[in-house]
Design brief:
By secondary structure, the first copy, chain A, is mainly alpha-helical. Chain A has a single domain (about 15-95), classed as Chorismate mutase (Chorismate Mutase Domain, subunit A), CATH 1.20.59.10. Helices cover about 85% and strands about 0% of the residues of chain A. The first copy, chain A, contains 3 helices and no strands. Chain A has helices at about 5-40, 50-65, 70-95. In chain A, helix 1 packs across helix 3 (about 70-95) and helix 2 packs antiparallel against helix 3. The longest helix of chain A has about 35 residues, at about 5-40. The first copy, chain A, is elongated, with a radius of gyration of 18 Å. The relative contact order of chain A is 0.12. The model of chain A has no long low-confidence stretch (mean pLDDT about 95). At the A-B interface, helix 1, helix 2 and helix 3 of A face helix 1, helix 2 and helix 3 of B.
C-alpha cells in the first residue's frame, strides 16, 4: 500500500515558503551589491575586499550560533554568495 | 585625501541586515529538513529525491524571474543547499 506522506508534504510546503523568501531576499541583496559594484568602479576600488569579508564571516559565525546554524555552513554560504558578487563587480568594472 | 565612503557604508549596513535575515531563514529551513531527515529514515526513504529537486528548481527559476534574480544563480543556490541537506539526511540515516 502506498503511503500518503502527508507530514512530508507539510514539511515541504514550509520549505517551499522559506525558499521563496530566500529568493526575494537574495534578489534584494544583489540589487544592493550591484550598487556597490558601480560605486567601486567609480571610486576605483577593487571588486573584492578581503578585510570586509573577514568581518562578514566573523559576524555571520556569531549570528549562526544564536540561530543554531552550523557556523561552518554559514562561512561556506557567504563564500558562495561573495564569489557571485565579485563576478558581478568584475563585469561592472570591465564592461559598464 | 582619504574618502569617507559613506555611501558604501550605507550599502554594507543593508547587506549586513539582509545577511542576518538569511542566516535565520536558513536555520529555520534546516530545522525543517532535519525533521524531513528523521521522517525519511523512519519510512525508509532515500536521502535525496531527484523528482522533488527538479520541481524545486523549476519553481525557484520561475520565482527568480519575478524577483529579477539570475535563474541560473537560483539553481546553483538550491544545489548548494540541497547538497548540505542530503549530507544531513545521510548522517541521520547512518548514525541516529
Amino acid at each position: 500500500m502506498l503511503e500518503n506522506h502527508d507530514l512530508l508534504k507539510e514539511y515541504r510546503k514550509s520549505i517551499d515558503n522559506i525558499d521563496a523568501a530566500l529568493v526575494f531576499l537574495l534578489a534584494e541583496r544583489f540589487r544592493i551589491t550591484r550598487k556597490v559594484g558601480f560605486y567601486k568602479k567609480e571610486h576605483d576600488l577593487p571588486p573584492g575586499d578581503p578585510e570586509r569579508e573577514e568581518q562578514q564571516i566573523a559576524r555571520l559565525k556569531e549570528l549562526s550560533k544564536t540561530a543554531d546554524l552550523d557556523p561552518e555552513f554559514s562561512r561556506k554560504f557567504l563564500k558562495f554568495i561573495t564569489e557571485e558578487v565579485i563576478r558581478h563587480h568584475q563585469r561592472i568594472r570591465d564592461y559598464s
